[in-house]
Amino acid sequence: MATSAAANLEDVPSVDLMTELLRRMKCSSKPDKRLILVGPPGSGKGTQSPIIKDEYCLCHLATGDMLRAAVAAKTPLGIKAKEAMDNGQLVSDDLVVGIIDEALKKPSCQKGFILDGFPRTVVQAEKLDEMLARRGVKVDKVLNFAIDDAILEERITGRWIHPSSGRSYHSKFAPPKVPGKDDVTGEPLIQRKDDTAAVLKSRLEAFHKQTEPVIDYYSKKNIVANLHAEKPPQEVTTEVQKVLA
C-alpha cells in the first residue's frame, strides 16, 4: 500500500505537494474541533460547511456519501450496508456510526470533523457519543442553523436552476435578467422537484419531529450554539467564527 502511494506521489506536481505541505503545517497549529451541523433544508449548512472545513482543517463527513462510498469500495461495513439496502431495510445506526469511525482514521480527519445530516435521532447521538468516547474525544459544538419555516419557504420555493450548467437563480434574491431564462444561454430554467412548498412542508415536519430532540439532547451538555441562519451568509460566517473562537 505504502509503495503504491509513494509511486503515485511522484506524479503529483511539485506545486501541489508544496501547497498541501504548507496547508498541513498551517493546520498543525489549529485547535481540534468536532462539530455537528443541524438545520432544516435551505438553512445554509451547505454554504457554511466548506468555509468552516477550510478554516479549521476538518474533514466533512456526509453520511449518505460515505455509505455510498463504502458500498462502492466493498469495505466490510459497505457489504453489510448493501445487504440491508438490497433487502429494502434502513442501514442500522451501528453501521453508520461504524462507517464514521472508519473515516476518522484518515489523515484529513486528524484535526476533527464536521458531521452534517447525522445524528438525526437521539439514539444516533448516543451511539455517536459512545464511539467518540472510545476514541477519547467528544463533540465540541453543535451549530444549530435556526430559521423560521416561513423564511425557508421563500428561500426554497424561489430557487430556479439551469440544468445543464448548474447555475442557480432566485426569483427574489438573485433573479435572472429575463424571467425563467438562463442569463448565459437563454435556455429555460427549471425548479427541482424538492423545491416546492408541499415537499418542503413535509420535510420540515419530519425535521422538527426528529431533530428537535437531538438539539435538546446536546443542549443538556451545553454545547449547542444557535445561529441566526436567516441572516446573509457573510454574517452567518462571522457568527460561526465567534462561536468557534
* CATH architectural type of the domain at 34-147 and 223-244: 3-Layer(aba) Sandwich
* Order of helical and strand elements: HHEHEHHHEHEHEEHEH
What is the highest CATH level, the class of the domain at 34-147 and 223-244? Alpha Beta
Beta-strand segment tally: 7
Q: Taking all residues together, what is the mean pLDDT?
A: 90
The secondary-structure class comes to alpha/beta
What overall form do the CA principal axes indicate?
globular
Helix content percent band: 40-55%
CATH superfamily of the domain at 34-147 and 223-244: P-loop containing nucleotide triphosphate hydrolases
Low-confidence stretches: none
Number of helices: 10
**Estimated share of beta-strand residues:** 5-15%
The third-level CATH topology of the domain at 34-147 and 223-244 is: Rossmann fold
Distance N terminus to C terminus? 39 Å
How large is the radius of gyration? Answer: 20 Å
The largest β sheet comes out as: 5 strands, parallel
- Strand line-up in the sheet with most strands: 2-3-1-4-7
Catalytic activity: AMP + ATP = 2 ADP
EC number: 2.7.4.3
Function: Catalyzes the reversible transfer of the terminal phosphate group between ATP and AMP. Plays an important role in cellular energy homeostasis and in adenine nucleotide metabolism.
InterPro entries: Adenyl_kin_sub (IPR006259), Adenylat/UMP-CMP_kin (IPR000850), Adenylat_kinase_CS (IPR033690), Adenylate_kinase_lid-dom (IPR007862), P-loop_NTPase (IPR027417)
